[in-house]
Amino acid sequence: MRTSRGWLACALVLLTGAGCTPMDDLLAEIFGRSMRVQPNFNPYADPQGAPEGSVSFASGNFPVGPGVVNLGQPEGAAPPPPVTQLDLLQALTNPEDFPQITRIENPVAADSESLARGQVLYNRACTPCHGEDGAGGGPIAAAAPVMGYSLMQDQSLGLSEGYIYSIIRVGRGAMPAYGHQLTHYDRWHVVNYVRQLQGQSPGQAEPAEPDADTEPGTSEN
């Protein structure tokens, strides 16, 4: 009896010590199946489809129109062409070679609604570096002056709206990309508001007329 148990123990040690393959083969002979043959999925595979009514990330970034929330992928809305930071740098000196940057048209009218939306987004994403007035006096600039870039410089004033949109989208130099935070049309709202700060927006408010009873150079408290 002890001898039989000893042989059985030795057999189990040999089977398990040689790895799981011999044990698996033995179990396959006994039960008719191997644990190596079973349903599996490739790494990062998603066996389940998107839930009904879900909103994809791409839908949020490329809606069919301003203020529209897509349920599923948008139809008839093509994302902007690929752009890199190197393209942005080269477009400064060779703008004609990068029409996908310099000639992209602004699809959002600079009306009061767009400017109001652009101001909210600008204050949220841009003010920390560029300041509320766009002159580069944001709170981060005190600790990191390179981040306090002024949008009122001659070079910035000469940039096309498509160029400003592309910088917001992919970033450039010390400025990070905001394409994952601001959707396609929201970036254009910011462009419109930046143009207003620069005094180039067609939607810029006219200066208030002075009161007839107030002398020039004075103000009422």
User: What is the CATH third-level topology name of the domain at 80-197?
Assistant: Cytochrome Bc1 Complex, Chain D, domain 2
Chain-averaged pLDDT: 78
Order of helices and strands: HHHHHHHHHHH
- State the distance separating the first and last CA atoms: 110 Å
CATH structural architecture of the domain at 80-197: Orthogonal Bundle
Roughly how many Å is the radius of gyration?
31 Å
Fraction of residues in H or I helices: 40-55%
For the record, what is the CATH homologous superfamily label of the domain at 80-197?
Answer: Cytochrome c-like domain
Number of strands: 0
Secondary-structure-based class equals mainly alpha
Tell me about the largest β-sheet.
none
Counting DSSP H or I runs of 4 or more residues, the number of helices is 11
Query: In CATH's first tier, which class of the domain at 80-197 applies?
Result: Mainly Alpha
Low-pLDDT regions: 202-221
What fraction of residues sit in β-strands? Answer: under 5%
Shape: elongated
Description:
With 221 residues, this protein is an all-alpha fold. Among the domains are: 2-31, no CATH class; 80-197, Orthogonal Bundle (Cytochrome Bc1 Complex, Chain D, domain 2). Helix content is 44%, strand content 0%. The chain contains eleven helices and no strands. The protein has helices at residues 2-17, 20-31, 57-61, 85-93, 99-102, 112-125, 127-130, 139-143, 154-157, 161-170, 184-197. Helix 10 (161-170) crosses helix 11 (184-197). It is elongated. The N and C termini lie far apart (110 Å). Residues 202-221 have low confidence and may be disordered.
